[in-house]
Amino acid sequence: MRWILREKIEEFKKGVLKAGWFAEKMFRKAISSLIERNANLASEVVSDDDLMDQMEIEIHEKAMEILGIFTPIKMELKMVTTGIRIAEILESMGDRSARIAKNALELSKEPPLKPLVDIPKMADITSDMVKESLRMFADADAEKSFEICKQDAEVDELYERVKEDLLLYMMESPRYVKRALLLLEIASFIEEVADLATNIVEATVYMVKGDLYKCCHDDMVAFKKGGGILFESSD
Ligand code: FE
Ligand code: FE
Question: I want to staple 34 with a disulfide (CB 3.0 to 4.6 A). Which of 5, 19, 76, 104 is the partner?
Answer without folding.
Answer: 104
